[in-house]
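Internal QA ticket QA-208
Title: Verify multi-chain structure generation after dependency bump
Assignee: T.L.

Test input:
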Amino acid sequence: MSRILALLVVGVALLCIPLLGSRYLVDLTTEIIIYALFALSLNVLIGYAGNVSFGHAAYFAIGGYSCAILLTTYQWPLWLSLPAAVGLSAGAALIIGYFCVRLTDIYFAMLTLAFSMLVWSAAFKWYQVTGGDDGFIGVRVPTLLEDRMAFYYFALGVVGLSVAALWRICHSAFGRTLVAVRENPLRTGFVGIDVRKMRLAAFVVAGTFAGIAGALFAMYNRGMYTESAFWTESAQVLIMTLLGGMYSFFGPALGAAVLYLLEVSINQYTEYWPAILGTLLILIVLFLPDGLAGLAQKMRRSRKA
Amino acid sequence: MLQISRLCKSFDGFAATRDVSLVLEQGERHAIIGPNGAGKTTFFNLITGHLRPDSGTVEFKEQSVAGRPPHEIVKRGIARSFQHSNVYPRMSVAQNVQVGLIARQGQAFNMFIAAAELHRQETGELLELVGLIDAEHTAAGDLAYGKQKQLELAIALAAAPQLLLLDEPTAGMAPAETVKMMQLIGEIVAARGLTLLFTEHDMDVVFSLAQRISVLHHGEIIASGQPQEIRQNKEVQLVYLGKAADAKA
Amino acid sequence: MLSNPTFLFLQTFNAIALGMNLFIIAAGLTLIFGVLRVINFAHGAFFMLGAYVCYSIVEQAGNFWLGVLGAGLALALLAWIIERGLLRRLYARDPLAQLLFTFGLVLVLGDAVKFIWGTEQYSVAYPAGLSRAVDLGIAHYPAYLLFLCGLGPVVALVLWLGLERTRWGRIMRAARQNREMLALLGVNVPLVYSGVFVVGAALAGIGGALAAPRLALTPGMDANIVIECFIVVIIGGLGSLWGSFLGALILGLVTVFGAVLVPEWEMVLTYALMLAVLLWRPWGFFGREQG
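Actual output:
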């Protein structure tokens, strides 16, 4: 009950943000909800399937670059570009995932990293198409969405639908089985489930929604840069997911918001944000393994007791 | 139903399974016994796809299953329980069984159907059957060891198998629990027309449940037949010298 | 180009020098993983710190070898503090927790370097005595790099003898297999763990100091080296000393000849190599297959 209330409050708040009249706030919130979706998509892999990926930025980048290129270079309309970009991310996740799920644990993680750095290399080197190190700038956003407020509502709509879809997926029979795969992969095989295929499906779902986030980002940012495919981007979304709490559905979204706001605030005072992030990370690992969501749960339970 | 022919498996030169052949008729209740280290679990692992045999064949309902992955073998109709309880410790008892049912219905990839109430009724029925209905919301890891074995049974049954492989189903149970479990297995197998292959150390369980017994020693089957024959078999007695007394404890 | 024997000769030595330097660093990583089962992302940061410490010591004291020693000691001390204070709380936790911890270290140490030394580029000169080029018949070659070529196998041998022949080495190898048993046998396992982390970090620091004359010291230098170390360790097999030796040589060759044959694509080449190894034989040459 309290969770539905919280969601309603957040939902209403999000809807009202543009009405506060601050362009800065609208931009900030747009970026936060995009990253929230990105983090939620990663959690399908980490929290539900139990596979830690170090290369999730690849699908964010592929989604973003594809959308940017299709919209701008090929002048495709949005209703074609966006699905196509998402389709490309999904396709990439399928191909890369096929190889990655043959491994587990650290080897899986390293392979996802290697693939994502290969994607980064492609973005970096393929100057003609992606703009290379200079970035792909001047993304042609449809006239209707040129207004920041209009784009915000569009992004909110897309993110809202995506989150609803992810919720459905994570709480479906598929989601339940994924958790089983995470908890005891051996047993799950002996229950009649093709564990490798399950992990691949999770990989593709995660990559697909990361692609959506990336496409939105490209339009919001009016450009895509190679940093979006670099391992630091993967690390950042990983930290967001863990900060928020990987065992809760909405945790990663919370983590994304908190991390983003923290970064923006702290960057105003010091240039040593990485050190603070690092310290935060160490503190989370040592004292808050279930993330903020886990902390909230514990607090709720101790209040009931 | 199950035909095993000349099954062999070695690990780094150590022959865990040597030339094992076995035929199981439908509805048969067959026990595999043998001292520790005889290769009983390896044998189970070979049948259920956890290990690939070096040579030999395993045919289930006239189709070869040797070397197939476990999930495929389960889909064909063989389900197993584990000697050391291998449940989902952090999931509730009901959820443990639910996973099995989801798998059985081929819903593992269904991203639309909500999991919360799925198969609630059938889960309840299975838990009632094995006597765990009171614990349905308990985390499986919190269950007493004996109850975890009951859960193992429920999960195996959720797959709606035709052949049930139980690896020491009463291991670690108190005598009263053992008797109950034994009766339960017997009833279930009879009611559902299942074929049963099980291993056990407790000779009481073996002799009351099994219609036929095979004795495994150093990876080989040294005797196979009706319980009476096995009881009187000299070689078996030799192998079990002193073991029969321990097993009854 | 490749048909020129002098060129080939020089580049091969470059590859070996690079490889041996890399080996010294990667040996620390593989040791830490082998015994502690921790993937130390901060290994690159240790390397970087070693290089910077060496630089400072050289600036102050004028002696390169003092710098190398100082780097080793500084990292040993830092590692001791980190392990005793923080890392040891994570041994019982899942690998992800340990990974994230070391990643947090990377961020903190990276900024620490920026804070202490600033963001300008520094360089360290070849040590006196090894600053000239040696006549090897076919060509002249920097003495320092030759020294690195020779140092690698020496370090490998010392480490190997340490692991195989000494009591501590045996304990470390045993810790790889069975920690609980060791504790039951009365071995001070926490001390062993601390020791391993300290030695591993010291190796990274020393490797960094040794690399200082070869590289430009900048705050981003840890990123490249950590990836290279991982590739080395994966090729060789996580936890295998000789595996790292072989892996380092291979990576050295690939890097140097890659830069020659396909300039501008070396980075892609390194990731492609990592990909290839993980796809074909993830446990490397001397690692064990996943159960």
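Spot checks passed. The interface with chain B takes residues 168-169, 171-177, 179-180, 183-184, 186-195, 197-198, 201, 205 of chain A (CB under 8 Å).
Status: verified.
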